[in-house]
Amino acid sequence: xxxxxxxxxxxxxxxxxxxxxxxxxxxxxxxxxxxxxxxxxxxxxxxxxxxxxxxxxxxxxxxxxxxxxxxxxxxxxxxxxxxxxxxxxxxxxxxxxxxxxxxxxxxxxxxxxxxxxxxxxxxxxxxxxxxxxxxxxxxxxxxxxxxxxxxxxxxxxxxxxxxxxxxxxxxxxxxxxxxxxxxxxxxxxxxxxxxxxxxxxxxxxxxxxxxxxxxxxxxxxxxxxxxxxxxxxxxxxxxxxxxxxxxxxxxxxxxxxxxxxxxxxxxxxxxxxxxxxxxxxxxxxxxxxxxxxxxxxxxxxxxxxxxxxxxxxxxxxxxxx
Length: 321
Prior knowledge:
This protein is α/β, with parallel strands linked by helices.
């Protein structure tokens, strides 16, 4: 009889045999940016997460840096008056995100800046691409995504991260960056599923679609193979890093991607709903929050994610200090 319980005798023994660890360098921390001055806005559906104006980022970025977290993913939350049908505010060289990039690079140059590249935050209709009637027009959206990515890259972003799930978006962006002589890297939201777990984010980013849903361009969660095919296509088009989103309900996809593409850095996004569920359950006394988020994040790393995008990044690192 094989004796496995000897691996679990006490805390010290369990620690000795633990083979999954998460470091501060493994995290990418999401940040929501708004216009204005001295803004630190609460987000009702995301307890502990805030929207910041650029001038109010100093303390937050200093806190992140003090914990050893050196990567952020930026989302712009702009005034409705600036939104239009084609998302022109997204590629303004003096856009909210471009100004944020320049601020971070001026005062926190050690932080690697990733920027979300999509139209949903900038369009009046809230969809991730241009519309032809009520249909998202894939091919006509590609040049606009490329313009947004180019504006971010020229402002100093280290990575642009297209999340629109348009076919060919990686190739279009890579071509634009190359033509401009830029070496900005690309993290693609390669396997992004049409998920019910995005709900709180849509309040945080003010990006809910004004009609319909995103099931015609985000992936159907009932498929087994499309995620790996999408990742392979993005790598072929030039993606430097790839992503699976959401994370917790898609650990199988993370694991398969890790096995299929071992030489390509793999990120996974523990999305707003996954974060909010733990927060809500803990607030109602249903579980121990620290134990739950630690187990959750460890499972994502165990599945094969090299990098984790999570609103819990700061709390995870603090618990170990």
